[in-house]
Amino acid sequence: MKFERYYFYYVDFEGNLFHENSLLTDKNFLNFFYKQIQYNNTGYFENYPYISPCGKEMNFIACGDTPIVFRNIEEDQLIYAGDLKLFFDPHHLKYVERSSQLYYPVKNNLYGRMGKYVLQELSNFIKEKDGKYYYKDYEIPIFKSFQDLINIKG
What we know:
Elements: E1 5-11, E2 17-19, E3 22-23, H1 27-35, E4 38-39, E5 50-54, E6 57-63, E7 69-70, E8 72-74, E9 77-80, E10 84-87, E11 94-96, E12 101-107, E13 110-114, H2 116-123, E14 126-129, E15 132-135, E16 138-140, E17 142-143, H3 146-150
């Protein structure tokens, strides 16, 4: 491997980041770590589907579906990691049937999942009609699985 050191992390369903069973909470570290997240295309440790490179170190990340979980929404900003913000445009919402979860694009075909607090906030605007879901008047695209979602192009 071309890295001097490598570390292994786990992200739980609520978006908490753990290293060696310790919860990491430093906002600056979390922000830096999450800004670097990408798919693991290294050919190493394939059971860790995401990585966060840091100089000569490689951080491998295991998680259920995505390491990015939006924990809060303030006005038109989704908040994740320490206190990273992403503009919220409901036209980019995606729904996955298998998990019954809402996702939102972050970058480079990476998707974040809406956390429980954000889902509560959005639930007032989401309606189901004839097997389709709508945010206000916008129809939310439905995907069978998370894999189907991340395999879309564009």
